[in-house]
Amino acid sequence: MQATPVRAQALAENLRVILARINAVTTTGHLVRLVAVSKLKPASDVLALYNETGHRHMGENYVQELLEKARVLPREIEWHFIGQLQTNKCRKLAEEIPNLWAVESVDTSKKADALEKGRTTLTSTSPDAPKLRVYVQVNTSGEAAKSGCAPSETIEIARHIKESCPHLSLQGVMTIGSIVRSQAKGEENQDFLLLNETAKTVERELGVKLELSMGMSNDFEEAIQMGARNVRIGTAIFGQRPPKPNETAKD
């Protein structure tokens, strides 16, 4: 499992370019976390990027792909699951990947409960395992094809995580906005505005501080300017992906 030197150097350069662009729009005193999303790319790419740069925050969209990569890649990698989450796979995800840094796509209390069960089992055998960070995914665009809870449902899901899931840590809120809005020029992204407003409502109600996870390859700079502290970049680092069988791959 080894990328060619040329491939490794190209990945490292792509990462450096993105980090420079992030730094250019980040205000003093704020840190922005870059999650490098390797969906449908080989584990050798992830290993090359890690070995060349030391970058640790990596993201995956599919549970099985993440499970397979986590088994063979260094434990120092801090994985983010960012894809559509099925309740029946939550427990396995939380239990079998000790270095799962966060699950960013929790949109029901039932999924939070399943993650809680998985993390509880992990800590029973590995007492030093940290709490699993979770983000509530909000469907800010209202598109039927998008996962995420309605903005009005966010408070109750967040409250449930905070009060009923002791092995989970409420990290923030996440959105995958409308492609049309991300490509619009000359106006503020309404998805980013709504996520920010939703987060502030939850913060006031529950007395917590939340991160905003928003922004991908095409719109991460605007997302940062509008408050993002966690951005998820795939194609700008790893290149275009092959489509998954029976599915169109999206960043």
Brief sketch in words of this structure:
With 251 residues, this protein is of the alpha/beta class. The protein is built from ten helices and eight strands. The protein has helices spanning 5-25, 43-53, 63-72, 87-96, 109-125, 154-164, 179-183, 190-206, 220-225, 235-238; strands at residues 33-37, 57-60, 78-81, 100-106, 132-137, 168-174, 211-213, 230-233.
List the helices and strands and how they pair.
Elements: H1 5-25, E1 33-37, H2 43-53, E2 57-60, H3 63-72, E3 78-81, H4 87-96, E4 100-106, H5 109-125, E5 132-137, H6 154-164, E6 168-174, H7 179-183, H8 190-206, E7 211-213, H9 220-225, E8 230-233, H10 235-238
Parallel strand pairs: 1-2, 1-8, 2-3, 3-4, 4-5, 5-6, 6-7
What brief labels describe this structure?
8-stranded parallel beta sheet, 251 residues, 8 strands, alpha/beta
Could you characterize what this model shows?
With 251 residues, the chain is of the alpha/beta class. Helix content is 45%, strand content 16%. Helix 1 crosses helix 2 and helix 6 packs across helix 8. The two termini are 24 Å apart.
